[in-house]
Design goal:
9 helices; 4-stranded antiparallel beta sheet; 341 residues; 38% helix; 3 domains; alpha+beta; extended; 5-stranded mixed beta sheet
Length: 341
């Protein structure tokens, strides 16, 4: 304790401690809890290159289904300056689940002389939640941080002023106790058995479906810790049952794409009714290996360099005139990714 007091008598140490305290309070308490800045409605031009690849892939797939060149041009121009680079990257290294000839047709379509649109979708503007602009929030944050830092410095100064007055009034601090140097005993580490649990995943995603989301198709970019694009994974609607809207989803496709593999691995997550119905099951087996959805159940998808564990976190079946347990009312699926060594 006495040694700590001696250190605190130095102005540089006091200043450093005050700076660190103010930084931690401003960054962690204010920046993360009180007034965090969260940007929303960003355009594709402002996304990570991996997500720009996903956007362009979806645009190409949409063009392949509709043949609408004008819509393809609009989707391409939303990428802004990143459009040519993203398209060139797609042409040089086409995804396994995308026909290279379709990429070529898309490239020709977007080079046509069509109207130019802004790089953000109409009606969306990047804004920061919790304030009118990110700049005003930052100014407020800096002011609060300065105020907190001043309070901490004032408290430290007041503490040492009081300590000095006590010493001046005759209160002396006892000299430090000098202890004899004794050998410090060491603790030997024992060889513990290897952990049975697998190492933490490289990436984790959560896909959530709710009845009425007829366009449900979640996809995620898989990047290495260094930012290298490794592949993609996702979940989408595979099969419906009955008629009318909203769709009654009876099966989902879980897929994994590895840029170092020649094919996309797919498995079909099926309702209890679909899994036990020979006709539906035989139809869906052509899309991928079927497995029955059950809360807490999981399945594994593997490619050349990636491993995906899909786990059903929560699920519920819908009620109606259709057979029992035949379509989903909700589904929450966790996708955990590991990179093979």
């Amino acid at each position: 304790m006495d040694q700590i007091r001696e250190y605190l008598k130095r102005p540089l140490i006091i200043g450093a401690l005050a700076f660190v305290a103010g930084l931690l309070i401003g960054w962690m308490v204010i920046g993360w809890l009180i007034a965090p800045i969260q940007w929303t409605n960003a355009s594709p031009a402002e996304l990570h290159p991996g997500y720009q690849d996903i956007w362009l892939r979806m645009a190409i797939q949409a063009y392949g289904k509709t043949g609408d060149a004008q819509t393809a041009q609009l989707d391409y121009q939303y990428l802004g300056d990143a459009g040519p680079t993203t398209l060139a990257r797609m042409v040089a290294n086409p995804p396994a689940n995308l026909d290279p000839s379709l990429i070529t047709q898309f490239s020709q379509a977007v080079s046509a002389n069509l109207p130019v649109v802004p790089t953000a979708k109409p009606g969306t503007t990047p804004t920061a939640t919790g304030g009118t602009t990110g700049k005003s929030n930052l100014t407020t944050l800096l002011v609060v941080m300065c105020g907190v830092t001043l309070v901490v410095v004032a408290a430290i100064v007041a503490y040492f002023v009081l300590q000095g007055r006590r010493r001046g009034a005759g209160v002396t601090t006892p000299p430090p106790i000098i202890t004899s140097e004794e050998p410090i005993s060491t603790v030997e580490w024992t060889n513990l058995p290897a952990a049975s649990a697998e190492q933490a995943p490289m990436a984790q995603f959560m896909a959530s479906y709710k009845a009425g989301d007829d366009l449900f198709d979640d996809s995620f970019s898989i990047d290495s810790p260094s930012g290298e694009f490794l592949g993609e994974c996702g979940v989408g609607i595979s099969e419906t049952i009955g008629v009318g809207v909203p769709k009654k989803v009876t099966a989902f496709e879980v897929w994994l794409f590895d840029k170092n593999d020649i094919q996309t691995v797919t498995k079909v997550l099926m309702s209890a009714h679909a899994f036990n119905d020979p006709t539906i099951r035989q139809k869906l087996e052509a899309k991928g290996e079927p497995f029955q959805a059950a809360s807490g159940g999981q399945t594994i998808l593997e490619t050349a360099t990636l491993k995906l564990v899909a786990r059903v976190v929560d699920m519920a079946y819908g009620q109606g005139a259709l057979p029992e347990d035949s379509f989903f009312d909700s589904l929450v699926l966790e996708l955990a990714i590991w990179q093979k060594q």
